[in-house]
Every structure is written in structure tokens, then in C-alpha cells.
UniProtKB/TrEMBL annotation:
This is Copper chaperone CopZ. Pfam families: HMA. Residues 2-67 form the HMA domain. InterPro entries: Cu-bd, HMA_dom, HMA_dom_sf.
């Protein structure tokens, strides 16, 4: 499964990381998510069918913004 790195704006603590990881793991086709508030990134393991819009919408649900899919 391909790994993507996305940049997320607004993470400031481990709680932020867990919130983003949890919501991304609920997206169909996502098998792994590892967020880093220090880097402002998320390493995402997802099928090719998972679109940038799906990722942006999921992250927005918990109050953060994807700045590059």
C-alpha cells in the first residue's frame, strides 16, 4: 500500500496527533496514519482510491486543515 506524507496545519500536541490519526483511520481504504505535531505532517498508508478530498474532509471534521495532500 502506498505511503503519502501530508502537511496538516494546527497540530500542537499529542492529543492533536491522536485525533487526526483516529479520523483518518475511519476513512475507507486507509490502513495506517502516523501524525507528528512537531513536523506538522501525517504519514498515511492508503489505497490509490483514497482522494485528497477524502483526506481533507476527514481532517477538517476534527478542526485541522490539510495544506498539502
Amino acid at each position: 500500500m502506498p505511503t503519502r506524507v501530508i502537511k496538516v496545519k494546527g497540530m500542537s500536541c499529542p492529543h492533536c496527533e491522536r485525533a487526526i490519526e483516529g479520523v483518518l483511520l475511519d476513512v475507507p481504504g486507509v490502513s495506517g496514519a502516523k501524525a507528528s505535531h512537531q513536523d506538522g505532517t501525517v504519514q498515511l498508508e492508503a489505497e490509490e482510491s483514497v482522494t485528497g478530498d477524502m483526506i481533507r474532509e476527514a481532517v477538517a471534521e476534527v478542526g485541522y486543515e490539510v495544506v498539502s495532500p
